Amino acid sequence: MYDSIKVYADLHPKPVNIQYQYGTAGFRTLGALLESVIFRVGVLAALRSKKLDGKTIGVVVTASHNPEQDNGVKLVDPRGEMLESAWEGHATTFANAPSSDAFIVAVENLVEFAKIDVSKPAKVVYARDTRPTGPLLIAALEDGLKAIGAEGRNEGVKTTPVLHYLVRCINSKGTDEEYGVDSEDGYMKKLSGAFRKLVTGKTPSGLLIVDCANGVGAPTAELLMQYLGDSIPLKLANTAIATEGALNNACGADYVKTSQKLPPSLSGVLRAGQRACSLDGDADRLIYYYMNERNQFRLLDGDKIAALVAAFIVDLVKLSGLEDRIDVGVVQTAYANGASTKYLSERLPVKCVPTGVKHLHHAAEHYSVGVYFEANGHGTVLFSSTATTTLIKHRPSTPAQQTALNHLINLTELINQTVGDALSDMLLVEVVLAHKSFSGLEWDSLYSDLPNRLVKVVVKDRNIFKTEDAERRLVSPPGLQQKLDELIRKYDGGRSFVRPSGTEDVVRVYAEAILRPQADELAFKVAGLVY
Ligand code: NG1
Ligand code: ZN
């Protein structure tokens, strides 16, 4: 095994003077710099599979909302969840081994440290997004699998959540927790079947425009539409996956959330009262928006989705008579708008955790039904296995209870339990809007966002910024938090925090206040203190 790894590793040498880090979104940098990393990730994925007795591990080659020239890679654990944290460190060690010999030593160390029986089988399923560097990187990944003798299953171009779904299906096959048919079609059938049941008898609230960010969400949404038929009127926009430079360019969820603007390609297309949504480059983030009657753009972000969905589920749990047996909770990060936290806290328990989907996901697992969304549109709803069993076994005493129960059971099928999926989340939002007969305006009126500002500050060393209390307070550099507290106190409804980014070499400053100019001023003053 080691001889073969060495031969292949020499084909994919590590560039000198570059340090890689498996961060909250896996490895991510210029696609041209990732060949050696992805080769090594292939070997790592196979070792993880061997460690877990031949269970299938997933690998997705994507850089999500980043520019087209970037790329990245994430590993998926057997239940379709993100890679266990301890192995993130192993991934970083593998990626940074300076030579093929050093890489072999790293492999030997891991085998010994993690007590891996290398004679076990290894299975890896993988996919990529639409980036031009994808095919070359997939070839490097395949070399990694060949080098160690792992069985690979190439899923071609797929969204991140589809790959997570596939991993869960493959590993749960034949168990009593079977998750679904292990194909993209199987997933689309599952989603569309549950959606149709949930909207039976409801009137869809008009055409929904779906901005696909010129990425992998486009072909997937097209396939989904075939399964949805006339159950929902959808129109896809920004579907140019073959156009160079188009991916995430002036479109997509990140563009809309960050610039708080309509993608220029939709201006003149989206009419007053009409709503649209944007996916990101790997279709795991979703942002909604609409034009109000004065033709102004209004954003409906991840916090608004959480508010809409959590309140809907709480009502269904009450209506089905399961209030005492199923607890619903929401998980947010410090970036959640203060108004959303207030709205949600008045209705159900809300927990704040550090940034990054894995923290939200784990915290959501502590509830029977855990709703989590980042403000930027990453999120899903988790039903615990006890809750799912309770739903299936419950015998309601009235027809109204039965209807609510059926809706909850169908929601467990509609919502991706492994990771947030923009398309599944979109259908979820549409279900709630149809049930409540809400337009964008009514949804928006659940609460009014506090004006807020997010700025990036480039600092000499972001590692000196250390936080506590779910990243809401700084413990280092010493004395800085006290200065921030003094400043924040001067602003009506002021809230601000500073944290180092996990994906970029910057420090992020977030600020909100009752009035727009104050939120802006607070953000810039805090940035001044940080710089
Ligand atoms: P960082 O760069 O650590 O702030 C960003 C997002 C996270 C999450 C990750 C992973 C913000 C402020 N931060 O993390 O929410 O989505 O990327 O993609 O949006
Ligand atoms: Zn993404």
UniProtKB/TrEMBL annotation:
The keyword Magnesium applies. Its cofactor is Mg(2+). Its EC number is 5.4.2.3. Keywords: Carbohydrate metabolism, Glutamine amidotransferase, Isomerase, Magnesium, Metal-binding, Phosphoprotein. One of its GO terms (biological process) is carbohydrate metabolic process. It comes from the Eukaryota. One of its GO terms (molecular function) is phosphoacetylglucosamine mutase activity. It is an enzyme of class 5 (isomerase). Belongs to the phosphohexose mutase family. This is phosphoacetylglucosamine mutase. It comes from Phellinidium pouzarii. The lineage of its organism: Eukaryota, Fungi, Dikarya, Basidiomycota, Agaricomycotina. The chain holds residues 1 to 531 of 923 of the full protein.
